[in-house]
Amino acid sequence: MINVLLVDDHEMVRIGVGAYLSAQADIHVIAEATNGQQAVELGLQLRPDIILMDLVMEEMDGIEATKQLIKQWPEAKVIIVTSFLDDEKVYPALEAGATSYLLKTSKAGEIAAAIRRTYEGQSVLEPEVTGKMMSKMRKPSLPHEELTAREMEILLLMTQGKTNQEIADELFIALKTVKTHVSNLLSKLDVQDRTQAVIYAFKHKLVQ
């Protein structure tokens, strides 16, 4: 039997997926968790063969839960099952140590098959995830492509000559928060100061 820990904050998902998996001759759902903290506690306590992990949950999300599990139990096999396919979720999840990554739009049979393959030591990735990874490998990203939406917004305001305080006032955020974003974007762009950041923005035509 392949013992599975099912982690999801939606009861209907747990009921539906749990019922299907329990009907499989070789799969047994030994426990359920509604958040990342419970997932870590039950995972370390029960040591299931597979952990089906949702990403967006209260108290602790799936990425942090996966990090903590892998840190304390390197042999853990985590399958991410989520609705999210954006880079801000995919790459952190895989970097955290997730073995496989599936979407909730996957058919029940595909999830069961992924459990079996992951149990056997294989990695199962949603085709779109594989495509994203291959694209990222083929085309190295430019520094500004690593900026978050907020950091890009602040960079563009910097090109208008606005001070940190003026940016804070315009975006309705704390001055300290602006300073943190500025520091982060300078680091990501690999420049020394605001002037170089502005030059970078014009050079790469981020602003007219």
Layout of strands and helices, then pairs:
Elements: E1 2-7, H1 11-22, E2 27-33, H2 36-46, E3 50-53, H3 62-72, E4 78-82, H4 87-96, E5 100-103, H5 108-119, H6 127-138, H7 149-158, H8 164-171, H9 175-189, H10 194-203
Parallel strand pairs: 1-2, 1-3, 3-4, 4-5
Helix pairs in contact: 2-3, 3-4, 7-9, 8-9
Main location: cytoplasm
GO molecular function: DNA binding
GO cellular component, one term: cytoplasm
**What is the residue-averaged pLDDT?**
91
Structural class: alpha/beta
Number of strands: 5
Query: Would you state the CATH class of the largest domain?
Result: Alpha Beta
The CATH topology of the largest domain is what? Rossmann fold
CATH superfamily of the largest domain: Response regulator
**Sheet with the most strands: spatial strand order:** 2-1-3-4-5
Biggest sheet overview? 5 strands, parallel
| Percent strand | 5-15%
Keywords: DNA-binding, Phosphoprotein, Transcription, Transcription regulation
Modified residues (4-aspartylphosphate): 54
Organism: Priestia megaterium (strain ATCC 12872 / QMB1551)
Pfam families: GerE, Response_reg
